[in-house]
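User: I'm putting together a teaching handout on how sequence relates to shape, and I'd like one worked example. Could you take YCII-related domain-containing protein from Arthrobacter psychrochitiniphilus, show the sequence you're using, and then write out its predicted structure as tokens right after it?

Assistant: Happy to. First the sequence, then the structure tokens directly below it.
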Amino acid sequence: MRYTLLLHYPEQDPEDLDEAAMAEAQQAMSRYAAALHQAGILREAQILQPSANTTTLTLVSGIAHAQDGPLAGTTMALGGLVVIEVPTLDAALDWARRSPSLAWGDVEVRPGAVHVASGAWVPSS
């Protein structure tokens, strides 16, 4: 079963980030990605640019309107995602608990319904 680990954490101004803390976080995420890869369960991972770089499309009367910024204004932002393939929710939760980003915010674990393989939608079970 595919699960997406959605990494939510407060965004900080780049000028406010401590370089040593940022380097430590990057190393921790690199080790986590390597562990997922070594276990053979990593399907995709991305750390996203700040939400200030987001453009959201909304359909109004059949016309897509673009607006700067994320869909919802909250103290936590979607900072990244990891897609893994494991046999059970418990296994997905175990890997989510290992995410270094859990120290900075929440990790949402969501089962996949379908995904694209070779250009076609297929069930994620």
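A couple of points you could highlight for students: The chain has a mean pLDDT of 91. The helical segments are 19-38, 89-97.
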